[in-house]
Amino acid sequence: MIDVYIKRTILYFAHFVLFLYLKLISIIPNFEWFPVSKKLRIPRHLALTFTDESNRLDLNSITDLICWCKQLGVKYITLYDDLGRLKAKQKELYRFLDYKASLIDDSTSNENEPTMMQLKHISYIKGLTILSRLDGRQKFVTDIKDLLKVEPAKIDLDLVQKHVGWTCDPELLIIFGFQQCLHGFPPWQLRLTEILSIPSHRNVTYRMFIDCLEKYSRTTQRLGA
Fold this sequence. Notes:
Blueprint: H1 2-27, E1 45-50, H2 59-72, E2 76-80, H3 85-88, H4 90-108, H5 114-122, E3 128-131, H6 137-150, H7 157-164, E4 172-176, E5 194-198, H8 206-218
Helix pairs in contact: 2-4, 4-5
Catalytic activity: n isopentenyl diphosphate + (2E,6E)-farnesyl diphosphate = a di-trans,poly-cis-polyprenyl diphosphate + n diphosphate
Main location: endoplasmic reticulum
Pathway: Protein modification; protein glycosylation
């Protein structure tokens, strides 16, 4: 009887340790650091679209992607989800990102430079934009109508971009999902954008992300005369 009790206790303890391990790896950013080629071309603006057929978004994987982008030097990041799920979970996403960024900063910062740590900590959200299908064609038309009402005689490209709120066109768009389509992503920002894909954002690894950037680095755009 005692042997059965001991075995059951050991089994419960093993399950508890496994639970803690799985919980821990789901929270800590998924960094698999290895030497990255100096020839790796980092886009100034990177757009990520999530077109997976499942309605479940993995905020853990999405925040990993954001952290990887920022660590590599991507200045602007646009997240697009046609169903608006990311916008609905924006506060939760920011809390998740805030926590992960603090883990990275705590492990890489110098205790004698708290100001630098704080600046790095804030930079993970700076330059991040979340879009949905509602930010597509109809919003663009509405913005232009409002622009015409306010300053009809002073319209130029810079003024339009200021009102629309678009900083610069993304050099790279990564589609997460098996369906190779834009799902309503604003097309006028994709004139010169390279488009690549990864089957799913869930359980995406750093190696998969770097492979995508390496493929982008090997592309050559021929814009014509």
